[in-house]
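Continuing the batch. This is chain 6 of the set; chains 1 through 5 are on the previous pages. Same settings as before, nothing changed between runs. Recording input and output for traceability.
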Amino acid sequence: MRISRTGSAVFLLCILAGCASKPPLGIYASNVVFTVPYAQSGSQLASGLTQHASIDEPSAQSLIQAVLRFHGLTKVSQFTIQALNVEAVVAGFGPSRNLDDVVAELSADNRVQSVQSVTPYRLMSYNDPYFALQSTVNGDHIDSIHQISTGKNVVVGIVDTGVDRWHPELIDNIVYTRNLVDYNEDSFDNDEHGTAVAGVIASAANNDLGIVGVAPDAQLMIFKACHQDNASRRTSCDSLSIIRALSDVLVRQPDILNLSLSGPRDVIIEQLLREIYRNGIVVLGAVDESRGLAESFPANMKEVIAVGTAINIGGGLTDVLLAPGTDMLTTTPGATYGFKSGSSMATAYLSGIVALMKEHNPALSNAEIYEDLRASTRFNENGLPVVDMCLAVNTTIESAHLCEQIPSMAVSDQGVTGSFQLAN
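Output for chain 6:
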């Protein structure tokens, strides 16, 4: 086994409709996404600016073709978002037209439910023989915690790049995978970021290999929505692939959803995450620490638990739960290991803690999970309130005996600065 200390930059531009390894840089400026209900009233077909009348409803396909013709657009791809009861269409337009103008024209069309540009997202970067090297989990007395909880029967969904499905630390825990970016299965297994995230959450324990995950018996569902360039190793995603991934999340229904990514606000992604939240799935999102929570979508949604690292978040603590995320020893493709840092790793770490909590109390609501995590913070040596794994697990099972062995730190009455209001 090899251990490497590497970092990875972010950003891959990849349009969902036939992702190429090096898509043109202007692809986001020449495509829009619009949605229509499964059926609309027929009198709107001519102009889209009239109110509907009482005639037979045409099929969604006829409506889409009418919208495309009226606005002079070319269909690139189309897919159904079943959870929202809409058809989504990726449409292209010529170089002589302006993106903002096209969006405005479609927004004024009563047949169109929503319209937006295609936007890039980026993954939050990260710069058993090796258990002693896992300073974070070792410091959290994870071996003692695993005597009462290992994440058994809890499913964690990961929307990210692909994951090395044959890594000996992960092979037995991955129960579902779907590639929503391309059809290159080799690239799926060679993707670095998702493999690292999965390893933090659920690397196997007591297998005479490598490391131990936070929740070594948790099951993993991998939704590949981000692409890694083989040459540069750069990775990121676009709103379309994330929309498709979240639609599949609603079908598969994991208990927890890990989103170690960030990008511009997107209406459809927002709607899907609210639906995921209403289905009782706990959603955790990484904060882009270079921008802060306010500009970190979807972590800034009320339905998402925002996670940052205990080092990089600085003074921006409001509404953000802090977790270890620096020099995390985790899995990398090809049965190897590496040290990774960043809010991606912190989010994965907290997702693992939530899996430990859910094992003992599967009925915990999103609000209860957040309040228990918030109540389990301790101030670290830098004076920052960091979620304590042992306290979080014992809060769930109403026991504190395991945490007595951990040196006590002064805990503020407020826990994490500020409050996190979850949606009803």
